[in-house]
Amino acid sequence: MAGLYLHLPFCRSKCHYCDFYSRPLPAPQALQRYVTALCRDLQTASLPPSLTALPLTSLFFGGGTPSLLTLAQLEQLLTASRARLGWADDIEISLEVNPATVDDAWLRGARRLGLNRLSVGVQCFDDTVLQRLGRCHDGAAAVALVQAARQAGFDNIGLDLMFAVPGLPPHGQLEWVKRLAPEHLSLYGLTIEPGTPLAHEAAAGRFTAVAEEDYCAQYLFWHEQLSALGYDHYEIANYARPGHVCRHNLAYWQRRPYLGLGAGAHSFFAEDQGQRWAADDDWHGYCRAIETGIAPRHLIETFSADQARSEWVYLRLRTAAGVDEVEFRQLFGADFASCFAAAVQFCGSRLQRQQGVWRMAAPDWLLFDHLISPFLS
Length: 377
Prior knowledge:
Elements: E1 3-8, E2 10-11, E3 23-24, H1 28-44, H2 49-52, E4 56-63, H3 71-85, E5 87-97, H4 104-113, E6 117-123, H5 127-133, H6 139-151, E7 157-163, H7 170-180, E8 184-189, H8 197-203, H9 212-228, E9 232-235, E10 238-240, H10 247-253, E11 258-261, E12 266-269, E13 275-279, H11 283-291, E14 297-302, H12 305-316, E15 323-324, H13 325-332, H14 336-339, H15 341-347, E16 352-354, E17 357-359, H16 368-376
Parallel strand pairs: 1-4, 1-11, 2-3, 4-5, 5-6, 6-7, 7-8
Antiparallel strand pairs: 8-10, 9-10, 12-13, 13-14, 15-17, 16-17
Helix pairs in contact: 1-3, 1-11, 3-4, 15-16
């Protein structure tokens, strides 16, 4: 199992809460230069056996706003990935799409090219809140996009939504979820990140985050309501109907190998205890490197056996699957409870063992950063 992530770091405008690497959408010829660089990187990258032994099982276009690609550019990237790495017969091909960036013809064309999963950046359906967050669309555009995607043949659609946003009661957002019936939901609590416009507003007293108890109450509201609707809460921030987990993201949490291409993209190679690579947050520099034959990625982390073991546990406890004792022993040649005896004791009843699998219940994920700390020390 291996995945490919392609990063398109361009947006029409920067959302007020966003601290990810993104840049304004460049002129068409500059965007094409970047796409050409991605294709050449796919053709020439030096890759380890963990990424080439088997065909791709997932391909994810992320950003930024990858739905700003033309269909011709999308086809270029799909063709290059298939030629270099091969595709599994049941490959999952996902693309992040923002409302008001594509039309019906684009959606139909993307589906014909092989895209079979969309991740729609809705955030919410309230126009006033969307404007406050700096989004470039309104609620009606989000609804129209999902409906158009259905008409185009997409039967695996995920929505990205926010909670704990001042002035945004969750009940109204839940009604839209019921109407649109997405196969997948990612729910993120709004956080104020340093250096963002939202942080500047907060510093000036023009924005106040919701209280901690309100944050927790909304998290539990969504857990209870979506569980009642038949969604599996399979990762801290992610829900899916049976059979519709995001395979690509699940591979991250399973510590599987993946290749990330593009400015700011990260890769994980599974050789030895694992290596993490990254390209700089500089799309001009990325293009220059590719055009002059210089590898754009550099090694940022090599894992020791202890570090690999801790990261594996950290990632697995984020998921409903939890830590399987047998799998842990097969991978690391040790007993989980013995290796992490102090951490297990620290968690107490918040970490439960059932039939050889250790898990945190969804409400306890609210304390995840606190509970996981002794596993990483």
